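Hey all, quick one. A colleague (J.T.) asked me to put the iron/sulfur cluster job into the tracker so the inputs and the structure tokens live in one place instead of scattered across chat threads. No bug as far as I know, just bookkeeping. Sequence used:
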Amino acid sequence: MSDLIKTLCPYCGVGCGLEVSPPAQANRETNRDSKGNPVWKVRGDRAHPSSQGMVCVKGATVTESISKDRLMYPMMRDSLDEPFRRASWDEALNAIASRIKTVRDTSGADAICLYGSGQFLTEDYYLAQKLFKGILGTNNFDTNSRLCMSSATAGYYYSLGSDGPPCCYEDLELTDCAFIIGSNAAECHPIIFNRLRKHHKQNKNVKMIVVDPRRTTTAEAADLHLAIRPGTDIDLLNGIGYLLLRWNRLNIEFIDECTTGFPSYTEVIQHYPPEVVSERCGISIHDLITAAKAWAESKRVLSMWTMGLNQSSEGTAKVCSLINLHLMTGQIGFPGSGPFSLTGQPNAMGGREVGGLAHLLPGYRLVKNEQHRTEVEQFWGLQPGQISPVPGRSAWEIITGLEIGEVEFLWIAATNPAVSMPDLERTKAALKTSPFTVYQDAYYPTETAEFAHVLLPAAQWGEKTGTMTNSERVVTLCPAFRPPVGQARADWEIFAEVGRRLGFAEQFAFTSSAEVYAEFVQLTRDRVCEQTGISHARLAAQGPIQWPEPDKKELQSLPKAVKRLYTNFRFSTPDGRARFVAHHSRGLAEPPDPDYPFVLTTGRLYGHWHTQTRTGRIEKICQMHPNPFIEIHPRDATKLGIQENDLLEVRSRRGTSRFPAKVTKTISPGTVFVPIHWGFLWADKAEANALTHPVSCPQSLQPELKACAVQLVPVPTQ
Ligand code: SF4
């Protein structure tokens, strides 16, 4: 093995290339953590097409966490009241296989659930998928992408006929108007944002508009910041559509030849004149017109979004409303333009390709589609009808299934729902009722481990080989560069081993993750996300490859011309036309009222990642963000009689948390902000999701984690 290993950052969906070198190559005296352990050296990979050598604090420090607080061997217990005891792999795997058989025989396959993660490698996802949706015959395999990207996925399906961001990172440097809505990209996707910010600074004609209730670091860099009221995104987007229609700034040829549904859309947006939108959104008519003019006058508009649109009870409608603007102006399918969803997790894109949500099958197929099911059944050698036509339980439906006793076997892998789910008291109570929970993770302790009967040690990044796809559809091979700690095993190996113990040796006869990937890509043939031309060997030899990449030699030898989807303006719908999908705004599922007069909005910080399972073990990041806090506007702070660092109790209809106040004008009066990263392991009673609610988008089933109504009560000093 070479001393310099090229791989991918395991944090966010930007997917930055990294070069890792072993401690023997680093300065052994200075390159040690506080406990004296040698730390692997890491730097950005200049040759990686997506990040070009750049890396943020998370990527730069990732190797510091790989040896700390690791789960070393399987552990088991009969009830949550007991301490864990060490178990062998054989004992743990036999117990799992036996329990699955019992539950399936007595209560049916739909009593079994797997809740996985965008941290999975594509190969992990694929075997989990094959085991649950294929062999076991239940679609109850959902992932934490449900909390993150499922509205983007659904929006693309409704509007364009298929999932798949049509844009690429090169568009950041080719656009003349970046429209960023519901995304603090400067902190959450910093390397992408660096590329955009450089382009914006160097080109005076390039506009940057940011829509966000907070004045974030991203908003600070914009030409125009629209600080809309939480939950009024559709009002704004329809209001921009109204003005474009009124000014006749439409691409009529594109609308006529490439879309359907425009007349219905115009009927809806007629209800969004500037005075109405200004009032609802809490922005000036002047700013609204400035934003609409940017869409009207720009030749290449690139929109970007993340949780601000997705984590909403009308998330799919928000995404479709944004795509409508691209369709009415024809801003899609050519360089510098298009609707670009930024994925949250490192392999959330790969998960979507493999079908890692409870309504999906591999290759952007749908569980509900009979032809799709038949194609997968035939490929997997299943009986006709073996794949259920019923979408499985979404993330939150797994919790409600536990509550009513319909979920009898729960397997959680590489995610931490005891911090990341909404309505945490209810979530934890449901987890406590689970008759049998397997928790498979690299780290111990974690909050979710408290609710498990079996703990399985998972190999983590750098200890297993596989692929990840980033936000611009670039597939990168992530090779193992060190052996797993203790008895940890790769997730895909664990799923395969359980499949074999259930009696399906032939279907799980894989000896390497390269074989797993080779099988998966055959299911992408002739699909939007085709990867039949990609293999581990080719990725190792040539570096990252962007899909679509068919296995046709004549196409592979051509210079890569298709960096974008829909360049021929034919979409993935049956008639090849994109659809205008018009929605009226419904607003927040839980608006403020006299009892709960503030809107709480939640978000992420630059250094921390999700529930801190990894970043909470990195000194530099903990020093950067030592404590949770609540942002509150000075006017509200004065009304409550509180000052900087005073403790505020935040109460919602579901729970209570406490945070020191950060008094700042970056948040609007009437709104407060709390970061999501602190679970009960890291801080006392400072969980953002103790407050949030689970009301979800009816199409995407993504909960509205972004906003809820709260009351604020100052805590007297002792
Ligand atoms: Fe890793 Fe994302 Fe930072 Fe890149 S931007 S180094 S992928 S966390």
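Adding what we noticed when we looked at it: The domain at 150-341 is CATH 3.40.228.10 (Dimethylsulfoxide Reductase; domain 2). The mean pLDDT is 95.
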